Amino acid sequence: MNKDTGRRATIVDVAKKAGLSKSTVARVLAGSSNISQDAAERVQAAVLATGYERNHLAVGMRSGRSGLLGLVIPDITNPFWAEVARGAQDQAARQGVSLLVFSSDWDADKEAAHLRALCQARVDGAIINPVADNLADLDRFGMPFVLIGSSAERFPDTSSVGSDIVQGVRLGLDVLLAQGHVQPALILGPKSRLARARFLRAVHEHCIERDVDPSILMTEDSDYTVEGGRSAMKRLLQAHQNGQHLAVFCANDLMALGGILAIRDAGLSCPQDVSILGFDGIPSGAFSWPGLTTIEKDGRRIGSTAVTALYAEIAGRAEHERIYVPCRLLERGSLADLSEMATARLVAKG
């Protein structure tokens, strides 16, 4: 509202307040480069003084852009995907656009319904963690898009952004080895997920490089949830009856947090009896007891990078490449350091 007249402020009000022409004000608001610093500052002050807000619908009709982007993620309740959404939202805000967020719940039909809704909303483009196996299912919606997540690697000729899973898994295994855990057990996701295959392949490659048979590692599959991890850890504890220290590398943090609960349920302690390493870096891992040591995937950076890549796609200058965001170690308290004990055992055997 115009603070002086009590009605909705117009660009004419801004021009009058700034002492500039309407066309100059319009060019300033459109972000034109050939504008003096003085004119830009006068327009900014006039906008604040009048309470002017741009009519994005009218701007979109003139420019062919809606000022809206879409984001379809698989599970909004998973804190990692919430971090991705936050990163995308922050970057979209810096671009002066809004973000519509949908959760597919790993359901291809829901994904398709969300994409139809985004088309109807006339979004300028979409960021998608693809559930559908056929890229044509996405192409038919006729909008620029960028893929995110491990499942995007099924489409190497499409622009995508995701964590460097291989680097992250190798980092986790190197940390475990350095702390004396030479044969960690694994809690993996469902066999239907590409992320599980990528994680397990990285483990196998790491083992083969060390001349270790990967089949000797205990593994359990579960859903990527707290309860899934709790059940998988319970099964591992039942199978591990030799009294030696057990280390477990989980494919995501929710499963790792469930694993800590199962350790407690069994009357054991973490990390005194069982060490556990997560993968994601969700904030709640800092508040568990003990704090969860994990390999952090930078969700916010993935989201913001995806928005930048999407704008390149919209502008028709995308290179259609896979952008890998590196992972890093977050050390807390869920890993016991057995390196001195491992060294002592080697000396004793020698």
UniProtKB/TrEMBL annotation:
The keyword Transferase does not apply. GO terms for molecular function: DNA-binding transcription factor activity; transcription cis-regulatory region binding. Keywords: DNA-binding, Repressor, Transcription, Transcription regulation. It comes from the Bacteria. InterPro entries: HTH_LacI (IPR000843), LacI/GalR-like_sensor (IPR046335), Lambda_DNA-bd_dom_sf (IPR010982), Peripla_BP_I (IPR028082). CDD domains: HTH_LacI (cd01392), PBP1_LacI_sugar_binding-like (cd06267). The keyword Repressor applies. Residues 9-63 form the HTH lacI-type domain. PROSITE patterns: HTH_LACI_2. Gene3D superfamilies: 3.40.50.2300, lambda repressor-like DNA-binding domains. This is LacI family transcriptional regulator.
